[in-house]
Protein: BURP domain-containing protein
Organism: Urochloa decumbens
Amino acid sequence: MCIVLFLVSFLVATAEGSRDAGLVTRVKETTVSHYASPSELNAYWQSVFPNRPIPSSILDHLSAPSGDKMKHVEKEHYWSLDSDQLTEGDAKIFHNWAHRIASEKLLYPETMFTIGSKINLYIDRAVALHSPYLRRDIANSIPMSTKNFTDITAMFAPVSLSMARDMWSTLSSCEHPREVEGEQKACTTSLESMQGFSSLALGTGDLRAFSTSLDVPEEGISSSSQRYEVAAVRKITPRAAANTVTCHSMSFPVALFYCHAVNPTRIYEVTLQREDSASIPEPRTPAMVRALAVCHVNTSGFDPTLRYWVKLGLKPGEASVCHFLTRGDVLWAPTWAT
């Protein structure tokens, strides 16, 4: 509740024009004129990964509107009153990864990824899928912290309460201590910093980037009553296990990814066919889906109180934990591992 009151107070103060004039001038320049252009981002990608395709989850940000055009459409396209990131029931700010991993319906044992298995398919929605990238020098100059929340939010004024809550949640997630033993994490605000963190975490610059299929809707998939049958499974990382980095697109007016590595992992492309047992299919349940799944092999450092373990009758370390990637996620893996 105190967080909500703080946000309301902030919005009132903003409306009354209490922002520092020097800051407003600097930030306005950022919001209007310092986005990375598609040609700049394409040139950077080709310089680092020549002749390698750009994943669709990165391309979506390259075609994003910016400046005044972005301000005009962001409420409709980038922000939701039904945000998954922070609700009134979640008065305390929580780590985004912990939020995902605490929801048992998003998690699967690796044994389910075999042909003929039947599952209720849940893939989280993609957030801020079309927010534009900042230029690297501008992104590096902005301290992304809740301590600078007022300054950061002023960059995107006018800001609704829903937008402010999403932004606070994202910044808090970036500051949260590591939730899983051995986890490496960073929040990246430019394409270059995302590639840089992935290279550092994986110990090589020779990387491949992947995104899940366009079969997966932006709003995700939720099949509570209808089941899907696994029709095909392809290993993206053919070896027994490999180190990878997953970057999740976060709720923010500009492209901001929560990147983390909980290794080792196994990566699969899973093709699923919807069972048409009902006369009218559920909403958000396409007939066929190809989706990327990440399986965390070493789960000994995971929270033993998760309902996932209770459901399986197991303890952390006794089974892997798998989840599907959203349309907005980017997976990085060493070339040799794919």
Q: What stands out?
A: The chain has a mean pLDDT of 79. The radius of gyration is 20 Å. The first strand starts at residue 118 and ends at 119.
